[in-house]
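Worked example

This section walks through a single chain of length 237. The input is the sequence exactly as stored; nothing has been trimmed or padded.
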Amino acid sequence: MSQKRSKKYQAALELIGEETYAPLAAFAKLKEVSTANFDETVTADFRLGIDTRQADQQLRGTVSLPNGSGKEVRVAVFAEGEAARVAEEAGADIVGTEELMAQVQAGEFNFDAAVATPDQMGKVGRLGKILGPRGLMPNPKLGTVTNDVAKAIKELKGGRVEYRADRYGIAHVLIGKVSFDAEKLAENYGAVYDEILRMKPSAAKGKYVKSITVSGTMTPGVPVDSAVTRNYAENAE
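Given that input, the structure is written out below as tokens.
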């Protein structure tokens, strides 16, 4: 079975070739080489000329995908009283404080994102060593520590994704599913790329965007032309 997968992967590599594609063409090619029997998740990998070991070259934030992520996001909200009621009405999957904290401490993670009201952060902060490594710790910079829990829930469920450059300066960002039209994937990609360009650390030196690749869960990467910075969903001349 592994040999068969290897042959499919090799065939996909040959179809992709050595070319660097405009965004729309890259997603059309990605859909062409996708052969998995499930709806693959599509990610974009931005290799950036930054040294994330330096405090002034960090890159992290969130961006809303215009066509959604295609992923069902389960949201947990640490809140009490009126905020808890609002969170439940807004569609939060889990709402609570002590009970929710106990579940996390017991290793139960029945959610993909967490939101907390500011008054709960004194308690939630104790879970930092558990939630932090999983990327689930509420963070005011990411809009997940807020009194407007309804807005946060709506954005998380509607296609807001996080981007963060790792220690190698690569930001891996979810941008949709293979079943999306190539145009919709290109539009999502454009929203992310615009944000990454906008948030370029002022201390970054040299070439900022070194290379970009898009791929499905089971596909090789398709190189994207980083010089294309607008009209992402249009065919290149």
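What to look for: The mean pLDDT is 94.
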